[in-house]
Specification:
Layout lengths: L4 E6 L2 H8 L6 E2 L1 H18 L9 H15 L7 E2 H10 L5 E6 L1
Antiparallel strand pairs: 1-4, 2-3
Helix pairs in contact: 2-3
Pfam family, one: EF-hand_7
Keywords: Signal
Protein name: EF-hand domain-containing protein
């Protein structure tokens, strides 16, 4: 069995948020969250990690609704950068994580 080296992959919340803010209005709306989820699912599929990540349209809609409820703290239908950072902090996501190199 080959040794696996772990490197640190830096997650920059501001860059991730800006890249997801398609219309560049400073907030994420339901359509941008849906597009983000679909991009992530496509990436998992491309890498072959999507066995458990295949979702129906209804499941995608439910997931987006759940994310909006979790992240949109003031209920205005938009996720600000501050709400986004608060959400990923509550979920215990850090700004860096080990990544295996193949």
């Amino acid at each position: 069995m080959a040794d696996e080296e772990a490197t640190t992959h830096e997650f920059d919340p501001r860059t991730f948020f800006a890249a997801s803010d398609v219309d560049a209005n400073g907030v994420l709306d339901r359509n941008e969250i849906t597009a983000l989820l679909l991009r992530l699912l496509n990436e998992l599929d491309r890498r072959g990690d999507a066995a458990d990540a295949v979702l129906t349209a209804s499941e995608i809609e439910q997931t987006v609704e759940h994310l909006m409820q979790q992240l949109d703290e003031d209920g205005d239908g938009h996720i600000t950068f501050s709400e986004f950072v608060d959400g990923i902090s509550r979920w215990g996501l850090s700004t860096s994580r080990p990544v295996r190199e193949d």
